[in-house]
Amino acid sequence: MDLTCTPFQRDGSACLRLNAADGAIAEISLHGAHVLSWQSSPGRERLYMSPRASYAAGAAIRGGIPVIFPQFGGRGTMLKHGFARLLEWRYVGIEPDAGSPAAVLELVDDAHTRQLWPTRFRARLQVSLAHAALTVRLSVRNQDDAPFSFTAALHTYLRVDDLDATALRGLEAAGFEDSRDGSASPAEGEPVRFRAEVDRLYPDCAHDLLLAGGGESVRIGADGFRDTVVWNPGEALAASMADLGAGEHRHFVCVESGTIAVPVTLAPGEEWSGAQRLQV
After folding, report:
1. N or C: less crowded end of the chain, CB within 10 Å?
2. In CATH, what is the architecture of 3-279?
3. What is the rounded CA–CA span in Å between residue 69 and residue 71?
4. What count of other Cβ atoms lies within 10 Å of the Cβ of residue 89?
């Protein structure tokens, strides 16, 4: 499939618009290599963006697909969710990924990142469009002289039409860690629903999932990522978040592909990659 890339600005932030031959569109901010929009067909938005999202330098953008690297959440000594989502990435160009053309963005260590994480690395994000599908791949290469470890995720906000009718299928037989209090919970034997705050880590569960309800379903697949995080802040937490706001929790569910429970360790010169594929 042909893929064209056009630069534009959003709230002063440099962005890219990807157009596929079948009319699909994706938009990416160079700030954080952040996927802002995916329209599988013209006018049909599949990702959620908060109306209060900030595109300011040093801020995390609320919604879309934030890149979490080199630390997920507070699982370490670094800044929560790492620094990759806060920095400017460089657009490399269009390159093939698994046979499809993909826009490639790159983040390489510098004096600033080495103050936060004293390693030499190269991270790349590849974004490709296929028929009714979006694939986002994160690759990390160790360019240091010593091994290093990291955790990472694609913190995907999927737009939903009716939260009460929405269910995530595919995790019925999986136990999880409740990230609200760190407790371990057994498998529930039923789809995940969103009647209150949900914040769960499902280790070793990155197989095909289906988010369904109130409209067309989205199938979520992963390659290289081992874990799944499921999050919706619920009414009270959403209302307390300055970049979200009251009632906004009803418009999205986060289904995140990640490598979190067991960090990835790379030897010098070694490379890892993980991809999330969204299919309508």
Report:
1. N
2. Distorted Sandwich (2.70)
3. 5
4. 24
Q: Is 256 a catalytic residue?
A: yes
Length of the chain in terms of residues written: 280
Give buried/exposed letters for 17-34 (b at 16+ CB in 10 A, else e): bbbbeeebbbbbbbbbbb
Where are the chain's structural domains?
A: 3-279
Confidence class for position 41, pLDDT limits 50, 70, 90: confident
Distance separating alpha carbons of residues 34 and 13, to the nearest angstrom: 11
Distances 240 to 45, 234, 235, 243 between C-alpha atoms, Å: 26, 10, 9, 9
For 125, other C-beta atoms within 10 Å of its C-beta total 26
Tens digit of pLDDT for each residue in 160-185? Answer: 999 999 999 999 999 999 988 878 88
Q: Express each pLDDT in 224-244 by its tens digit.
A: 999 999 999 999 999 999 999
Tokens 């936060």 label which residue? 116
β-strand pairing of 121-130 with 100-108? antiparallel
Residue 101 and residue 127 in contact, taking contact as beta carbons nearer than 8 Å: no
Q: What is the pLDDT of residues 203-221, one digit of tens each?
A: 999 778 999 987 789 999 9
HSE (side-chain half, CA atoms, 13 Å) at 183: 4
Alpha-carbon distance values, 74 to 2, 18, 77, 182, 183 (Å): 40, 33, 7, 12, 16
Question: pTM of the entire structure?
Answer: 0.96
Residue labelled with tokens 């952040």: 34
**CB-based contact 125:89 (threshold 8 Å):** yes
- Asked whether 155 and 254 are in contact (CB, 8 A), the reply is yes
Identified catalytic residue from 31, 34, 155, 251 = 155
45's CB contacts (< 8 A; 6+ apart) are 37, 38, 39, 159
Region of residue 206 (left: phi > 0; alpha: psi -120 to 50; beta: else): alpha
Known active-site residue 155: yes
